[in-house]
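seq:
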Amino acid sequence: MELQDLITFFGYMSLINFGVLLFSFTIITISGKWVHRLHGKIFNIPEETVGKSLYLTIAFYKILIILFNVVPWIVLKLMA
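struct:
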């Protein structure tokens, strides 16, 4: 696999993952109470805890995207 192919791969992977992150954040923001009730029933946790859990999940996902998608893309761009 060529270096340029890897740069393109990590670039598209970063865009797709940030798109999923933005979509998730938008859905949680727009339909707030409904999402909290639904997740509270599914996972059997209080609605007050669901907000914190969703926030931490989104934060963790963002960190993973940066660590495993964006950083390798930047390093490969610097190598090229």
